[in-house]
Each structure stands twice: as C-alpha cells, then as structure tokens.
Amino acid sequence: MRKIAKIIFNTLGTLSLKKIIKLLSLVLPHPLFAILSFYATIKSFTLAQKHFPKTNSNDGIGNAFRHALWCCLIMMYCCKISSPEKSLKWCKKMTDLHEELFPNEPLQAQMDLHNNKVGMNLFMELLPGIHRQFFETGFFIDVLLKKTKTAVVLKHPDENHGNELVYLE
C-alpha cells in the first residue's frame, strides 16, 4: 500500500500548475465522486499487482486489466451514491482527463482509452441484471480475467478491437 501511495503522490508531483487547475476543476465540484475514484484507483492498482505482478505497470496485459478494472470500480462506487448515467459521464471525464494530464505515446494512449471503454461497457452490460447497490469487485475480476485470455495486441492506433482488451508487446 505504501508503494502505491508513493507512486500516486510522485505522479501528482509532476503536474504543472495548469494541469493541477484542470484536475481541480473536475474534482472540486464532485468531491464524493473524486474520493470514490481515488479509492478505485488504489484498489485497481492493488488487484492488478496481485493478478499481474510483472505487467500491471507497463504496456502488457496487466495494464489492460488494470485500466478496465479501474473504470468498473469507479462506476461501481459512484453508482452507489448516484445514477449509472452520471457515474458513466464522470468515469469517462475522469479517465479521459488522466490520459490528458499524463500523456503517453499515441499507441499507449489508444490502448488505455480502449481498455477504459471496455471497463465502462462491462459495467453497463452487467447493470440490467444486478441492482447497482449490490455490485461487488469480484463480479468484474472474473470477467476481466477471462478477457485477458483473449486480449489482442494493438499494433496501430486506428485499429478497432471491439470489446476485447488490448495491450502492447
């Protein structure tokens, strides 16, 4: 846990004043969503490290799993205090802003955005069958672990791999 906190605080320390203001303009109007998203971030890092100790922090399959799980968890926690529609809108804004604040190479950015979308789609697919108050982390882990078995290597930024996880070699 200490390692995760260090990573998060070191990462935040790299932000310029302009980027800090952009981040604050998103989180200050929605403090509960921001707190829940921060918790989802920590939880997704922890679970990705557990399941994919070697690839959760690079461009491998563990990173794909982490991004999709991150979005599922943000939506799960936010849906407990708000509507699925507002949670989805928040999750998209938050995860898109993450890519803007911490830019990657085009292929890495495409991979992260795609896997974020896979996570949001998974939550919305499961939503009709489960009341949003009863979602649990395990619902997503099992499905996402299965998706890692069929994940596809992303080779070009304009590729469309539907609802499959993607990663880089």
Helix content: 55-70%
- Name the beta content range: under 5%
Enumerate how many helices there are, as a single number: 7
Spans where pLDDT lies below 50 across 5 or more residues: none
- Cα-atom radius of gyration: 15 Å
Average pLDDT, all residues:
92
Number of beta strands: 2
In terms of quaternary structure, the protein is single chain
Distance between the termini: 28 Å
Count of structural domains: 1
Major beta sheet, strand line-up: 1-2
Question: What is the string of SSEs from the N terminus onward?
Answer: HHHHHHHEE
Q: Main sheet? A: 2 strands, parallel
**What gross morphology would you assign?**
globular
Q: What structural category arises from helix and sheet content?
A: mainly alpha
Keywords: Membrane, Transmembrane, Transmembrane helix
Organism: Chryseobacterium lacus
Pfam families: DUF6973
InterPro entries: DUF6973
Features:
169 residues, mainly alpha, two-stranded parallel ribbon, 7 helices, 2 strands, membrane, DUF6973 domain-containing protein, transmembrane, transmembrane helix, DUF6973
